[in-house]
């Protein structure tokens, strides 16, 4: 049951995954008791799918319960306890509780370095998570440094083509983009994409994430034709792939393409895509999910920009004095990064 729930979660079928995880948790509590390690694993998995849906308060509460029980049952340095700490840090980050998230990640990293060693894969996961929360706070120099260290260690320990190494490359490219280091970010994204295509295949979700990220950095550089072409390719592959057109990854492609078209003043096309993304996000993630709210905000900004365009081109107006761009791609990049879109989540299940 837990394995099926994990598959449903990966497919973006969050309501079904939540229901399945709740059933698994209830049965394990009844049969094994509330403190059995398998019961705590079910709590952890339920917290993760709640997190995926943006139900952050409930996910935080569930993670705290799982962490407290694991600390009592297994001890504060047990690998499962440290996984709970890592997952709690993640949900704190996604709520904007950055100081708490940073502190929790630093504690987890310090314990993993002591217990598992500085080059253990779980330790490198904590380094990656800490880099992400630094990125979320706009501490880009620190985030870049941490990402570079994580990447170097993963290349040494796991090899240059391991999926975790490629995740570190993708996250480093993202923080370079958000600092305006576009040429280096584009180069890094191209390398990541090429390796993922070779290792994982052209249709793998991680490969498509790299395509989406490469389109984003081209948008940031005003390479709109190349960015649009890449966005459309990514969207087409995501729609026909295993995850389907309603999966959040596919909706991210719709969202990013809508934003790019609005920047090019192609408002009618952008309007159609924004309406699709907003409606689907509302259904899949819920109306209060941060991504849903951000999409609605960008949609409103696009409508306002469209009106400004009309005003500026009116023959009665000599100079409107208003800007007709929604914003640079880097602004969208920063916003998506804070919601965990385009960056890989390292937390372990």
UniProtKB/TrEMBL annotation:
Highest taxon of source: Eukaryota
Location relative to the cell: Cytoplasm, Cytoskeleton
GO molecular function, a single term: kinesin binding
Annotated Basic and acidic residues bias: 220-229
Residue numbers spanned by region Disordered: 203-232
Alphabetical UniProt keywords: Coiled coil, Cytoplasm, Cytoskeleton, Microtubule, Motor protein, Repeat, TPR repeat
InterPro entries xref list: Kinesin_light, TPR-like_helical_dom_sf, TPR_rpt
Keyword Coiled coil: yes
GO (cellular component) term, any one: microtubule
Alphabetized SUPFAM superfamilies for the sequence: TPR-like (SSF48452)
Gene Ontology biological process terms in this record: microtubule-based movement
Stated family: Belongs to the kinesin light chain family.
Name of the protein in question: ATP GTP binding protein
Native source organism of the sequence: Zopfia rhizophila CBS 207.26
